[in-house]
Amino acid sequence: MTNTDVVLQPYHSIVTQGEYRRAFPNARRFVYVNPTSIDPWRLDRAAVKPPLLDIDDEWSLPRLDLTTTEGWRTAIDEAAWALASGPEQIHGVFIDDIDRVSAATAHAFVAGLQEALGWSPELFVNRGFHAWAGLTLGAVLIEDVRGGRVAEDDPDGLSRWVSETVIPALVGVRTNGAAVHRIEYLDTSARHDHPEDQLAPGLFDSTWITAPRSLNQWPAQLKKNKDETN
Asked: What is the pTM of this model?
């Protein structure tokens, strides 16, 4: 596959066994990290538990307290572990949930990760429009443009958010050569107030509007979901 961005979790066998480059030789290869959380599997096995804010019920994720030295160090260390296969295997890092942190925190995380790695991975980010300026982005993901910043029962505010924040951000990164991908989930597909509908299709390089909420599914299950949708 060419002109394709592939994102895998760091514990996927293709990543851990050093097969990412062989499996997707012509795609841009990214490894997922989330600076605001620690994977529950990794947390259970940590010798020293990092400081947490809470457990995110929607995603079942322990949220790190990034205001503490220990929480910040954990975020950097977990991301460095995720990208340990290095630039021979992967092109970059997919950073999730940067809309949950300030622009300064997002930029500091990228700088800290680059320092820990000793190389600069290409950046693929999810939302976090406020933090895009000052980052050199290879790709961005639009996963429900509301994020946590606009109430679902405020259509006027949502319309302003899309026109004043989202569209200028997308136009800006496209001008700089970044790919723009869109994803919506099955459990929200019945809505008739998708803010993304205000966005011109030409802004997106790819669109997936029937994604299952859990993306950790094998191809047979994805095919089943597609057949049921059709």
From this structure: 0.84
